[in-house]
Amino acid sequence: MVLVAVSNLAPGQPLQPEMFKLEKMDADKVNNSYLLESTSLTGLELLRSLRAGEPVRNVDVRPAIMVKKGELVQLTVGKPGEFQISARLEAMQDGRLGEQIKLRNAESGRVLSGVVTGKGLVNGT
């Protein structure tokens, strides 16, 4: 069983599990390049168009941009349950999940960096 698109999908489109369904494929054609679980799609975007019924492969997806240049994001520094501090800073570059990006404090002008952890969320380094 492999994941196939339920409808036509465009490049750059953020993926959601409901956009795909599982379909049987000949066992000799299935390999590690095909995605087999819809739960693995969250946080990914398409690199190319997919037609309805077409299987999605690892090379067809990449992590989606979670932070866009110029938007305000929440930077969190510290450990949950111990000491944490959060601030709203301006992203100086786009960022995908797990990427380190630069942020600017609008009040002080200071530039900081952090790792993108989700949509509009960054952890301080």
Task: Describe the protein's architecture and organization.
With 125 residues, the chain is mostly beta strands. The protein folds into two domains: 2-63, Antifreeze-like/N-acetylneuraminic acid synthase C-terminal domain (Type Iii Antifreeze Protein Isoform Hplc 12, Alpha-Beta Complex); 66-124, SH3 type barrels. It contains no helices and eleven strands. A five-stranded mixed barrel has the order 6-7-9-10-11. Strands 1-2 form a two-stranded antiparallel ribbon. Strand 6 (72-78) and strand 7 form a beta hairpin. The radius of gyration is 18 Å and the shape is elongated.
Question: What is the topological layout?
Answer:
Layout: E1 2-5, E2 20-23, E3 44-46, E4 61-63, E5 65-67, E6 72-78, E7 84-91, E8 95-96, E9 100-104, E10 111-118, E11 121-124
Parallel strand pairs: 6-11
Antiparallel strand pairs: 1-2, 3-4, 5-8, 6-7, 7-9, 9-10, 10-11
Regions with little confidence, pLDDT below 50 for 5+ residues: none
Could you give me the name of the CATH homologous superfamily of the largest domain? Answer: Antifreeze-like/N-acetylneuraminic acid synthase C-terminal domain
CATH class of the largest domain: Alpha Beta
- Helix amount: under 10%
Residue fraction in strands: 35-45%
The CATH topology of the largest domain is Type Iii Antifreeze Protein Isoform Hplc 12
Q: Which architecture of the largest domain per CATH?
A: Alpha-Beta Complex
Radius of gyration: 18 Å
Let me know the number of strands. Answer: 11
- Roughly how many Å apart are the termini? 41 Å
Order of helices and strands: EEEEEEEEEEE
Biggest sheet, spatial arrangement of strands:
6-7-9-10-11
Total of domains: 2
Shape: elongated
* Number of helices in the DSSP assignment: 0
Largest sheet: 5 strands, mixed, barrel
Mean pLDDT: 88
The structural class is mainly beta
